[in-house]
Amino acid sequence: MEKHARIFVPGGDTLIGAALRRRLAFQRFTGLVGTPPGEPDLCSAPEVDDFFRRARPEYVFLAAGKSGGIRANQLFPADLMLDNLLSECHVIDAAHRHGVKKLLYIASSCSYPKHCPQPMRVESLMTGPLEPTNDAYATAKIAGITLCQAYARQHGANFISGIPANAFGLEDDFSPEGGHVIPALLAKIHKAKVESLPSVPIWGTGAPRREFIFADDLADACLFVMQEYDDAATPINLGAGEDLSIRETAELIREVVGYTGELAFDSTKPDGMPLKSLDSSPLIRMGWRAQTSFAKALLLTYEAFQNELRKSTQEGIHVRAAV
Ligand code: GFB
Q1: For labelling, which of 145, 156, 193, 259 has a CA lying 20 to 30 Å from the CA of 11?
Q2: What confidence category does residue 313 fall into, taking pLDDT thresholds of 50, 70 and 90?
Q3: How far apart, in Å, are the Cα atoms of 92 and each of 38, 98, 150, 279, 307?
Q4: Cα–chain-centroid distance for residue 270?
Q5: What is the average per-residue pLDDT within 286-313?
Q6: Which has the closest alpha carbon to 33: 94, 107, 108, 106?
């Protein structure tokens, strides 16, 4: 991928899309096209087609598609599934018709069956029922993987797929209801600390295990596979190898925030997939390594949350003053 190549990151404002744009800029790729707010409406086929005709991207990192934590997936399965299906179909088809050299589709670890041998290998995809709390979204992500494979088979398109571990990071969704576990707990535990609450509710039993990857490391892995991996028939896992229980995760977050209250596990709330650790040995064998320790990534994410809180409080003050 040449430094001046025309690169498009659909979903440029998502957690992963923003990290990708930051990583591309850091590595001095100067040819980004369609960056927000200039990104086309990915749910509109004519807008996507017109954009590809005008901008003629050569490489596409497909990070688009609404996502959310376990609660968001329970509340809005249709919204999440439709947004991901429409955006991936429009972008993948336009990429083929407008001669994109290579496309990387970013899927999700929930694409694996609920009960899957651990660590999860791509051979296990579609070998069993999905986790019910996110089966709609997961089906859309599996459809994206399969559509890339179909374009590769039918048209010889160099469209590869990456399956990331649970990503978190600077541009995360910190909303307690919609966010994934790390941003949601950072926000909840921070609030408990500020308001001196005696305890914080943690959903589920704390027993499920998750493999996490810092979004900036995931972005680096995406650039790596875009340049080094060409097996369009076989998705590649994008993991950093850190797998810990939700209880351990919550305890680490409590430490980062400096909260001294209790963590109250609420087993009436869903656990989701019991285990979600990835076998990323193909990526590791190719020489990629994550650069950010989990502790450092948690700290950076917490700082980003606090900065966002300060900004929204100032805006709040500003808005009140303007009224
Ligand atoms: O990150 P999370 O929402 O998504 O939940 P999944 C991970 C685990 O953390 C679950 C527990 O066992 C939750 O019950 N948890 C505890 C919490 N407290 C909280 C909390 O306050 N908020 C949240 N969100 N979780 C998602 C899929 O599954 O993984 C998405 O639903 C996507 O579709 C994503 O695939 C990568 O890891 O369970």
Answers
A1: 156
A2: confident
A3: 19, 10, 11, 26, 36
A4: 21
A5: 96
A6: 94
CA angle 11, 16, 21 (to 5 degrees): 75
pLDDT tier, 320 (very low <50, low <70, confident <90, very high otherwise):
low
- Cα–Cα distance for residue pair 280/122, rounded to 1 Å: 10
- Residues 197-228 pLDDT 10s: 999 999 999 999 999 999 999 999 999 999 99
| CA atoms of 253 and 179, how far apart (whole Å) | 15
- Map out the domains of the chain as residue ranges: 7-315
pLDDT digits (tens, 9 = 90+) for 51-108: 999 999 999 999 999 999 999 999 999 999 999 999 999 999 999 999 999 999 999 9
Between the CA of 69 and the centroid of ligand 1 the distance, in Å, is 5
**172 Cα to the center of ligand 1, angstroms:** 13
For residue 321, pLDDT over 80 is answered with no
CB 64 within 8 A of CB 87: yes
User: Which protein residue's CA is at the shortest distance from atom 10 of ligand 1?
Assistant: 271
DSSP letter at 161 equals E
**Four-residue CA torsion sign, 275, 281, 286, 291:** positive
Instruction: Please tell me the pTM assigned to this model.
Output: 0.96
Cis peptide before 119 (omega within 30 of 0): yes
Residues in the chain: 323
Question: Among this protein's residues, is 137 annotated catalytic?
Answer: yes
Q: 7-315, what's its fold?
A: Rossmann fold (3.40.50)
